[in-house]
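User: structure tokens for this one?
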Amino acid sequence: MFVMWLRLGASFVFSLWFAYEDLKYRYITFIPLVILAMAGVMVSVISGRDFLSIVYALIPGALLCLMSFVLKTGPGIGDGLYFLVMALFLNIGELGILLLTTLLFVCLFGLAISVFKNARNMKLPLLSFVPPALLLMAIGGVHA
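Assistant:
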């Protein structure tokens, strides 16, 4: 139980930092990402995760990185790198739920903005919707 809260707590604290950076600067910096990766390695060692589960958890982040190269208006490379590093904290099921919940929040916010403000060319930062999704996962007790 402690390890689960350690994983979600560390994920939430770092997601707040990256959400702030993504909102303010429209990119994320590399040094906090490296610190997050080092913390993720420590959490993975403490929780006793096997290597194969970490490799499977890299799939959503790798797909987001691929989408950022293929699509010009899709998610940025920082979004993909963030989800790649989050693979050290969360398993594939939790990352899939996190990504889908984040996309749901982005879609709902984008729909509300388009209805009330008529903003057609607005770009929404994906990482700014990760903390509410993580909070919803923690409150709802979602563990895949």
